[in-house]
Structures are given as structure tokens and as C-alpha cells.
Amino acid sequence: MKNIRLNAPDKQASKYLVKLGNKRKIEFTNVLKCQRFVGETNKFLTEVLINMNLIYGDVLREYREAWIYFDTQRQGKARKIQVNRMILQLIDDTNSQFEYTYLKSGFSEGSFMVWRNLNLISENIQKIVYALIEMHLSKSNTSKVIQLKLIIENLKTYERKLKRYPEVT
User: Fold this and answer.
1) Residue 14 φ then ψ, to 5°
2) Residues 26, 20: contact at Cβ < 8 Å?
3) Phi then psi for 137, rounded to 5 degrees?
4) CA end-to-end span of the chain, whole Å?
5) Is the predicted pLDDT of residue 74 greater than 70, yes or no?
6) Helical packing angle, 77-104 and 31-66, nearest 10°
7) What is the mean pLDDT of the chain?
8) Residue 6 near residue 41, CB atoms below 8 Å
């Protein structure tokens, strides 16, 4: 299974410093407590990555179901083509960001890359969802709009957790 694995903490004099990608720095005097914290952080970030991947899978399914409405043979053809291309580009970018997040987590600046990429993944998925909401609104498909708005709320919850970590896990 793919896991996030941040590097060991920096040792500075008699302290151990863990730099998180949300700009927080946590100091420890005990190496075991520090290692335990890094392990908990890896677990937290892996859970966020997995949950975002599950949400992303749901959004991909929603896009494939909505794809038939991106009818380029009717009125508004140029806008539909533009939106569909944007969604496809966001899908490609998001796939790359998932891989990059996992692969770069062990690098020296891995913590910053993981946090940044998890936020980029969330932003890209939200852009896809907003485009789908716009399309469903044009079709007066209220139930789909409500479902898609719930996805946005779930992603924003993960963004808040990332921003506030380690206070809220």
C-alpha cells in the first residue's frame, strides 16, 4: 500500500525539530516522542491521501455520468468543449499530483511537498466538481447539485484539518 513517509526530524543541539508543510514547527527533547509524532503524522497524511483518492474516484464517476451532457452538437457548443477540456486537464493534473505526493514524501522537503500537493489535489477536484455543478444546474438536476456540494464540503474539511494539524486530526 502507498504510504506517506516523511523524513526523520532535524536534530538541533539537544532538540529534535519536525517541520510540517503547514508552516508549523514542533520541537521535542525526546527522540522517541519525536519519532512517534512523525509516525502519527505519516499516518494522518496517508489517511488524508487515501480519503481524497476515494473522493476523487467518486468525482471521476460523476464526470463519466455527466459526460453525455457535454453535447458539443447543440447550442453553447464552444463553452461545453472548453469546460470538458478543462475537466480533462484537471483530471490529468490530479493524477500526477497523487503520484508526486506519494513519491516525494521521503525527500528532504517532503513535508512541504505533501501538504502543498494535498491542497492542490483538493483544489483541482473542487474545480471539477464546480464545473459539474454548473452543468447540472443548467439541466435543473437539483439532487446531483446537492450531492456534489457535499463533496466540496468534505474536501474543505480535509483542507481545514491539514491547516490545523496537529491540533485536529
Assistant:
1) -100, 10
2) yes
3) -65, -40
4) 21
5) no
6) 160
7) 92
8) yes
Cell digits of residue 117: 500537493
How far is 148 from 105, CA to CA, in rounded Å?
30
CB of 29 closer than 8 Å to CB of 14 = yes
61/150 Cα distance (integer angstroms):
15
Q: Which residue has the higher pLDDT, 169 or 13?
A: 13
User: CB neighbours (10 Å) of residue 43?
Assistant: 13
* Digit-coded pLDDT (tens) for 86-129: 999 999 999 999 999 999 998 888 999 999 999 999 999 999 99
Between the alpha carbon of residue 45 and those of residues 50, 53, 130, the distances in Å are 9, 12, 25
DSSP calls for 2-55: ----PPPPEEETTEEEEE-TTS-EEEES-HHHHHHHHHHHHHHHHHHHHHHHHH
Preceding amide of 166 cis, omega within 30:
yes
Distance CA 61, CA 48 (A): 20
Quick: pLDDT tens for 35-62: 999 999 999 999 999 999 999 999 999 9
